[in-house]
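Hey L., structure's done. Input below.
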Amino acid sequence: MMGPILASFARVEIERVEEIIEYIGALYRMGKISQDAAVALLKMETDMQLYNSTIGRNINFRFADHSSVWKNPNRLRFFKRLVTRDGSAAVQRIIQEQPIYQNQTHDQLMNFDIHYASFGERLRILEMIRHPVDLIDSWLRRGWGDRFGTDPLALTFCFSYKGQDVPYYALGFEELYLDSTPLGRVIHMIARLWDDSTSAYYSLAPEKQRQVLIISFEDFAQRPHSYLDPLSKFLGDTPTRHTPSALKRQNCPRVYSTETREQKQGLIEGEATVVEQELLYRLIEEYETLADAVAIKDE
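Output:
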């Protein structure tokens, strides 16, 4: 939802979904590469991706993808780039225009240290959080409780444990993962990602926390205009005439049904074990506390 909206700002580039950024973070977190190697890769990849974007190379033209040029509110500029000069001329355009590179990732707040080491004070992380019930329901509908290691399209790092593939999300509770139902696996994996992300955030010094903007999906979807000014200050950029249409295409604002969520929660509770239910309730309590704390208060 946020990618095309952010891309409607004056200097923010089209949303990129470059999985290599996540893979670097995963390998670093598993201790498979050193910090200096991770930092070098992050710097090189983002420089190359920004350069390629500037000259119209490796841009997504698939109609259905949310990161597509066709979903971008200012698509004409990307067609113009197809005929612009490359090389040093492109580098000069980057220096003069100061574009803001945008990459949509998952679970990178927990790797704040390598991203900060790569980009320093220029780094901005917009962390969108979502109600655990909706997140669990989404993961289940997409099959994330049993696709890892069996579906060739489930491109997430796995490791072998007792002859079975286990996603790195379950590192440290492999036995529990294998013994759990798809629902139980999803609850435990989401809890692990939530705990790692929030603990990383709370451990940051205040000046580094200011480089992270946490937004509740539900609150933004219902009151997006309340967030435009905070987003502008956070990014050091401004919305454009394209921003209202970008919001409209992302169905913002919209009515959010708590009744539907309560129905989902009832179904989850009915299938979860007592331990999984307790974990769910903790996630809900922590999410609601954080969502309330970060909500933009209207004047």
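The chain is about 55% helix and 5% strand. The mean pLDDT is 94.

-- N.
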